[in-house]
Amino acid sequence: MQIIRLYHAGLNLMPTHDAARWNARYRADNEHLDGMRTSFERPRPFLVENSPYLPASGLALDAAMGLGGNAGFLIERGLRVAGVDISDLAVRCAKARLPSLQAVIADLTCFSLPPAAFDLIVNFYYLQRDLWPQYIRALKPGGVLIFETLTQEMMTLRPDIEPVYLLAPGELRKAFAELEIIVYREGWVNPHGKHPRAVASLVARKP
Q1: What's the CA gap between 181 and 145, in Å, rounded?
Q2: I need a labelling partner for 96 at 20 to 30 A (CA). Which of 85, 110, 159, 175 fits?
Q3: Domains of the chain
Q4: What is the pLDDT of residues 115-165, one digit of tens each?
Q5: Radius of gyration (Cα) for the chain, nearest Å?
């Protein structure tokens, strides 16, 4: 089972505290690694809803992929998928379930994307603003970006969340204004459920 572990200048790209924190979270949610069949393994509803905009073929990047719910959905639709995550536990579980996945263990804060390499980039519930220009450069002409993450409105429900990890109103749309924005929304998803989230969601295409 081939898994790519990235290094740079002889240094591991994965801060141990972040990797350990996410590994602990996955372990806490699952008593047995072989039984990891959780919501993390299902594709995000916004991705499924907007599947008509997915390319029919090509290479997709799943940034901060977790256990590979989105990656599995994309592979089923005929795409080749490179999935990147800081949690070695999550990457190994995703790879075991999805043998064709190009699985990468890496810290995205130290990650550099090749230009014009991807037909699709998906980013769910991960906010690293300095990646956004890389996403634009890394898309091929006609490539699609699907992005969803939390907004500052979440602080009305979770005041403990660090504001740096939350989008300001209109921030996501402005960040990708040079792309053709196909779908954009801000608001609450699952507002009456167990885990309501205030999010901004975007589907955009590179001209």
Answers
A1: 9
A2: 110
A3: 3-205 (3.40.50.150)
A4: 999 999 999 999 999 999 999 999 999 999 999 999 999 999 999 999 999
A5: 16
